[in-house]
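help with this record:
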Amino acid sequence: MLIREVMTTNVVTIPSDTSLAEARRIMEFHKLRRLPVVDRGKLVGIVSRDTLEKAGPSKLTTFSIHEITHLLTKITVKEVMSKDIFTVPPDATVEEVVSMAQKRRVGSALVVEDGLLVGIATTNDFFYKIVNPILGIGKTGSRISIHRCGKAAEVAKVLNTVNRLGAETVTMFALPHPETGVPDLNLHLNVEDPSAVIEALKKEGHDVHLTPR
């Protein structure tokens, strides 16, 4: 999967001469945690909500509330923004971007193509567009886990049994068992009571359990 498939394209940006007060207002209005800073079409930095919250008090703690409010309209984003920008091309894979973001300890990647900002991918994008569909978030049903079931032939037999009993697989994924490292197959079924499926799979020799979701 490419980052262009999960990124947000309607990116809200601000110029570097935006005041901290205005930047905060824009973030609150759009319910954002970060804003790319763009001057004359060029990406020059990024500012986060945490940065804005830290910038004001650290510089203005000796002032009154009225003075703080006034000065926040004078200090610009240029003075506090980060110029260490994590950018990726739109054809980068999600795996590559997530790996690089984790190493850099950042929660977003700015997507740049031909020198122009074309999108932003945040942790929310990864959750809503990748993790949620895999886990079947918001969908009814039940989840069962079949231990030590990672080979294609084994998975095919399990799915055949599920289908034979009239259940449908909503989503499925395999994760290495924390102790053995052998993949466990996790199936999200469309039935609330998967006891018939569990019993049939156990008779076939599988180690299967109902797991909470």
